[in-house]
Amino acid sequence: MKKVLHIVGARPNFMKVAPIHKAIATRGQLSQVLVHTGQHYDVKMSDVFFTDLGMPAPDIHLGIGSGSHAEQTARVMLELEKVFLSEKPDLVSVVGDVNSTLAAALVASKMGILISHVEAGLRSFDNRMPEEINRIVTDRIADLLLTPSPDADVNLQKEGAAASRIHFVGNVMIDSLLASKARADTLPTLKDLGLAPQGYAVCTLHRASNVDDAKILGGLISALAHVSTRLPIIFPVHPRTRKMLADKGLGGLLEKAPGLRLVEPMGYLEFLALTSQAKLILTDSGGLQEESTALGVPCLTLRENTERPITVEQGTNLVVGVDPERIREAATAILNGQGKKGRVPELWDGRAAERIADLYARVLGVDTGALRASA
C-alpha cells in the first residue's frame, strides 16, 4: 500500500492536516504516517488540538522545541531525514508556512520523495516575514501545489510554476471549522467568561514584527485599551507575547485597561466558540483572517500586508496596519455597525480534504473508481 507522510509542527498545521488524514483514512487505500515535529511544544499550543480535532496521536514525535529559525529548521531536517529513511513514504504532505513545512520539503526534495504543499501560492510580497521565505522556497521545490484560492494560482503562474503542478482544492482549514462548529457551540465558554454573544471582541498577537518591538507593541496595546472601553476584549496570550509584554514593561498599561482581559491560550474548540460569536476580531494571524471570513465576523488585521487578500476582497477582513489611530477608527466604525459583511469564497465548502484525498490517490496510482468524485 502506498504511504503518505504528514508533517505537523504548529497549531495552524493541525487544523489543515486533520481533515486530510480523515478523508484518506475513510477511503482506506493509502497508508498514513503522522509526524509531529514539536515546533509548538506547549500543551495548550499543541497537544490539546489533537483531541479537539479528533486526530490520532502522532505516530512519531520529534520533540524539536524552540530555537532560532536556523536552529529549529536544522534540527527538524536532521530528524526527518532519519524518519524518511525508515518510513520510505511515497508522498510527503506539508501544509502552511512554518519552519517545519520548509524543513520537510527540503529533506524530501533532496531524497527524491514526492512533495505536496497544501496552501500553496499565498504571498504577502514581504520578504521580511520568515513565513514568506518558507512559502516561496517550499512552492519552488514541491511537486504538487494545492491552492486555497484563485489568487494563489495566479501567484504561482507568475512565478513560472507549470499548470500541471497547480491544483485549486479550496481551503482545508475551513473543513475543520465547519466540522467542529456544532461541537464548539455546545461549550460553556462564553458563560464561563461572563460574556454575551456579540458583546465582546477577540484579539490575538504573536508575530515577531509586532511583539518584539516595544514601540509597536505598546501602540497596539494602547489601541486595544481604547477599544476595550466600548466592549471587553478577550486576549488569549501566546507564550511569546506574554514574555514580551513583561520584558517591555507594559504591565502598567495593561493595568489601566480592565476591559482588556488576558487569558491563557485556548484549545481549538474553545477558541472557535469564542470567535464565532464575537462582535469583532483583531489579529495578526493569517488563519484567523480566513476563519473570521468563514464565520462572517468583522476582522481587523494588525499588519501592513496579508498573504490572504481574498479575505479582504471577498470576506470580512480589513488590513489596518499597526498605527494606533487607524486601529481605533476602524474598530469604532465596526462597533457602530459599519463592518464588512463579506461572503464565503469559492470552495471554502468543507470538502477541500476530499479533493486532496482524491488527488493523492490519483497521483499515487490508486484505483479511484470506487472513490467519491472530486467536487
From TrEMBL:
State if Isomerase is listed as a keyword: yes
Q: Which SUPFAM superfamilies match?
A: UDP-Glycosyltransferase/glycogen phosphorylase
**Where are the coiled-coil regions?**
none
Name the keywords, alphabetized. Answer: Isomerase
Keyword presence, Cell membrane: no
Q: Domain (UDP-N-acetylglucosamine 2-epimerase): give its ranges.
A: 23-359
Q: Name one GO molecular function term.
A: isomerase activity
Family that this chain belongs to? Belongs to the UDP-N-acetylglucosamine 2-epimerase family.
Q: Which NCBIfam families match?
A: wecB
Write down what this protein is called. UDP-N-acetylglucosamine 2-epimerase (Non-hydrolysing)
